[in-house]
Amino acid sequence: MDPQLDPMKDDLPLMANTSYMLVKHYVLDLDVDFKSKVIEGSIVLFFETGSQHRKNSSTGRECCQSEFDQSHKMRASEPCHVPVTNVSACSSKMEYNGFAVSGEGEEDTSDENGNHSNSEQASGISSSEDCCDRENHGNQDFVLVLDCCDLSVLKVEEVDVAAVSGIEQFTRPAKLTDVSKELGNLRNHIVHELVALPAKRWEEQLCCFTHCSQAPGCGELPFATGPWSLEIRKPGIGTPADFPHAIRIWYKTNPGGRSVAWTTDQSGRPCVYTMGSPINNRALFPCQEPPIALSTWQASVRAAAGFVVLMSGENSAEPVQLPEDILSWYYYVSMPMPASTFTIAVGCWQEVKQQSFTAAIPTNTEFSLPSVQADFSWHEAMCGHVGYPCRFQNPAVSWQAVIPHRVFSPCCLVELCEERLLPLIPQCLSAAFSTLGTHPFSRLDVLIVPSNFSSLGMASPHIIFLSQSVLPGGSHLCGTRLCHEIGHAWFGLAIGARDWTEEWISEGFATFLEDVFWARAQQLSLEEVKGQQELKALLRWRRLRDEVQNSEEELQVLRPNKESTGELSESGASVVKYGLKAEKIFMQVHYLKGYFLLRSLARTAGEASFLLSLRKFVRKFHGQLVLSQDFLCMLLEDIPKQKKSGLTVESIFQNWLDTSGIPKPLLEEVETWKECQLVREVRGEVTKWIQTNQRVRKSSKKKRKQDEVIFQKLLPDQLVLLLESLLEEKTLCPRTLQCLERTYQLREQDAESGSREV
């Protein structure tokens, strides 16, 4: 490994050599065993060579195409259609009895090649410096490196896709004139043709992936595992172009693996789910973790009857009954995304059914943001991403304000979810649609996850995890958190950061949009919006101030790699700076500084113009990976006011993204928030409570009866500011605390207020 890639203890290594080979599709076939707390099965990976991708990435636009793919421009200009036919027939091995192979494939060469167990290092595999950072190795074997840890790899084999019945359509003679007729090249040619199918043939492609994933093996491949990687070679193969482009890995997870949590839900029933680990999914399946490795996937997951499998998938899976009281669940995704966004949750979840409820869709015209009916000049522009069935080019869904959605929870929380959560989802989805336009994903599941979940929420493609902590109290915390996670559908998922250190591109945008969505969902007036957003800004400023005072300066920088942001080694391997640092996991600086930057830009441009620019940015960059300058350059070009104010990309880097501490522009603005009406009301209430506390402390037991003080009813965020302010007082006597609890019913408030209970 290059010296600059040598991971320190606080850095997360991304070991996959994506510059040489890119995973284009995963097929997972897994069994979940709650007795042993193990997920076991196989994964088939379909690759394309990655050298052309290195050339494309230098332009700043991620097209993720093969060096052989000369038809991309033609495909990119085609409209993206979503076929309506059913693909559920291509679900799992046990459901695909009609699958046939045309031959037995090559003879198993495992004895000749030798297979290495999970614990031993293969002596024939050189160091990463020798095998991963050079494409032409002379007499040395090319080594495929995948991100992997906490897994027991049992076997790796090449898949004989040429043995699949009906695969002849991908081996037309005209296509074979430029490639060797040797079987290895033929198989790679078939995979290349398969992954290169145009977007309108996605259903056919998915079925072909299913067929090929079930093809027989044609020789085991030597492998070795390290702390962070799985290295695979094929003896005698020295280049990525000749390396097998379809491989099958048999493996099982470790009960203590860091990608999933085995626990019990709030009803005491066993469950397992991906909880947003800093190491992402490499302890769930071998993969390419770097965000540049955009891929699609499909998965068949089997579990005992009574368990429900939820997953990142475009389809609402229906279980298939198998022998021995086992259910099989099948999901697929046709939009290429990083493997880190894959999410699964298996438990005794119960769907929260909608009763006689009709959601109120916001109609307040005073706070209407620009509508999607507006005649935008960019609306007809073609997508800039690699071809996939894109919703932004599908007229049938361009007016869909509320996408199909379901809510799941442990049985003991069903009634609470029905009361608090279910009615909010249509309102929040509609508010998001009116702000940013077309929903990037076709459906949404929302799951209340177990109590060991360390965050309030987490968004993944087609599914959102929410903490049970958002349910108590009124709708405020539940609604704002739901809006935050819905915002990630656009920023974080449909548009991702090309460099994981730029988390603000995801979290800063979601935090900013959270306020916009929630204001629309509540149908607030412009005056109410202004007051509540200034109050929220003050609360976040206080949080940022405290975090800056109590954290290391190096963790406060939003672009820690500065001018090197987005750069990779020759092999594609890299490290995520401070990705494993314990303190960073709980920090919110990327949320807060990112939010304040966007708020500052919106104030300069005017909110309406700024939100129109956000929608334009979404239209241009959805399905792609971006860096900070991609957004900032477009914004400064799009809104002349920004340029007239003297803003430049360099000044924004200097003041906001590349330095620690609180940005100077923010220090000038905070005083105005302190004088907004809602904050002044809180100051008045704080004074009342301090005076009450003083009187209570001075009064004797015989003189406890005082003139009753009338306390004003407060909004949820006002209550949070009140409690934070009272916490700054040296002492509050027990009787005052009891009075506080009675007045505001603190035990019934949401987690934001409860966490500040004095």
Tell me what you see in this structure:
The chain is an alpha+beta fold and 758 residues long. It folds into three domains: 14-55 and 139-258 and 276-299, Sandwich (Immunoglobulin-like); 349-354 and 388-675, Neutral Protease Domain 2 (Neutral Protease, domain 2, Orthogonal Bundle), CATH 1.10.390.10; 677-755, no CATH class. Helices cover 32% and strands 18% of the residues. It contains 22 helices and 24 strands. The chain has an eight-stranded mixed β-sheet. A five-stranded mixed β-sheet has the order 17-18-19-21-20, covered by helices on one side. Strand 2 and strand 3 form a beta hairpin. Helix 8 (424-436) crosses helix 9 (476-487) and helix 14 (607-621) packs across helix 15. The longest helix is centred in the last third of the chain and has 24 residues, at 526-549. It starts with 11 loop residues before the first strand and ends with a helix. The relative contact order is 0.11.
Which secondary structure elements does this structure contain, and how are they paired or packed?
Blueprint: E1 12-14, E2 21-33, E3 38-49, H1 51-57, H2 72-76, H3 110-113, H4 128-131, E4 143-147, E5 151-159, H5 183-195, H6 202-213, E6 217-220, E7 223-225, E8 229-233, E9 246-253, E10 260-264, E11 270-274, E12 295-304, E13 308-311, E14 320-322, E15 326-337, E16 344-347, E17 350-351, E18 405-409, H7 414-421, H8 424-436, E19 444-448, E20 457-460, E21 463-466, H9 476-487, E22 495-497, H10 504-522, H11 526-549, E23 574-576, H12 582-585, H13 589-605, H14 607-621, E24 624-626, H15 628-638, H16 640-644, H17 649-657, H18 664-674, H19 677-698, H20 716-727, H21 734-744, H22 751-754
Parallel strand pairs: 2-12, 18-19, 19-21, 22-24
Antiparallel strand pairs: 1-23, 2-3, 3-9, 4-8, 5-6, 5-9, 7-8, 10-11, 11-16, 12-15, 13-16, 14-15, 17-18, 20-21
